[in-house]
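User: Can you predict the 3D structure of Ammonium transporter? Sequence below.
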Amino acid sequence: MSIENLGTYPPAAVPQWLSLGSNSWILTATTLVMIQSVPALALFYAGMTRKRFSMNTVMMVLYSFASTFLIWAILGYSMSFYSSSIHVGGLNFLGLPLPVWSLPMFGEATYGPGGTQLNIPFLTFVMFQFAFAAITPGLIVGAIVERTNFKAWMIFSPIWILVVYAPVAYWLFAGGWLNQLGAIDYSGGYVIHMTAGYSALALAMAVGQRLPRERKVEAHNLLLTALGFGLDWMGWNGFNGGDAGGATIDAAIAVFNTNLAAAAAAIMWIAIDMKVFGKSSFTGLANGTFAGLVAITPMAGMVNPSEALITGLITAPIVWLGIYKLLPRLKVDDALGVFPVHGIGGTVGGLLTGLMIDPTVSNYYLPGYRGALFGNVHQFLVQALAVLVVGLYSFFVSLGLAKLIAKVTPLRLDRDAILHGDFYIHGEASYPDLYLAKSDQSVTHREKLKEETEIK
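Assistant: Sure. Here are the predicted structure tokens for Ammonium transporter:
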């Protein structure tokens, strides 16, 4: 639409503060991030599971997406981004819990205790931040597939948004106490990936392991996983590019750095697999790519491209070790490696942020910020503090929440439900023929003869 045509709209629809370009970009970025959950993450995880749990896996991701929107509109957004309701010694800890419709929702986007303004509509910002919140519990699903009680997940997911995600988002996105100390999380390396990764570890511990013979990944359809993977990678352009807050130079920097880190980590992971196993795999490439994407997220628009490249190259081997060396020692059944990829990957990225923030680049987003490599050791220290706080808080609050829910309903499916999967849990299945075959096998020879006689 040309600027000249704006006169056909009521003045209230196109106020002076509104940037059409920025609003268009953030709405586009919102859609890209929403696609990362639905259908991308659902497909990625479903393809990695056994056939009999593919629909249950999709349902867990979709339920988190839908329930998060309700929680976000009623309380989650304001607790994450509105003016402070809990503050101690000048430090702000949580937003005021109010529904979105009681806020100035038709005006300019403002957030945090300082009332930071953006030249986009308030509801555009609410939707963009919802997309981030929605994918976070969905990420946790990968750690607990193939044995988790869906009823327990229905309770855990929305409450987790309020008690884990919202506080951490306020601390590191909205100007809360960690921001006040100087910590920065450009696009969710802490708020999304670390909270999901450490919470996944806690929940996997609480739910327990899969059946002994099923503790290795049996991906039933890697093409589904590849489709989800591709959508997730492309969606990351909106994930990190949108956090510039508008259509700015910094948005372009973030998108470029994001893809550079991802590609570097993917190739590094393949090289490691070739060296250790003598062959490369699609799942290895996917894990490597996600490791790079996760690690660059907290600093995507704050570092130069050479640092993005280094981030990918450093993170891939560390996350590889997390999957193949650390997880077996922990004896925790994190089915799809959520903790190593998102928890460890987010931790590495968070620490590297404190080293690598380049003042030449941060000048386009937060002028004055610089990492330890550019003379500001304090930046590394506050980023390390944020890593410690977010990791411990996410793990222990999630573990405590799981134990409370266990008093209401079992966290784990019973053995029959685990053996039968989707149809037992939801009354439908992605592969109904699988259940028909099992049903036929369970019919005795005598019953078959009787059936044939009755037909005659």
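The first strand starts at residue 84 and ends at 88. The chain has two domains: 18-420, 424-455.
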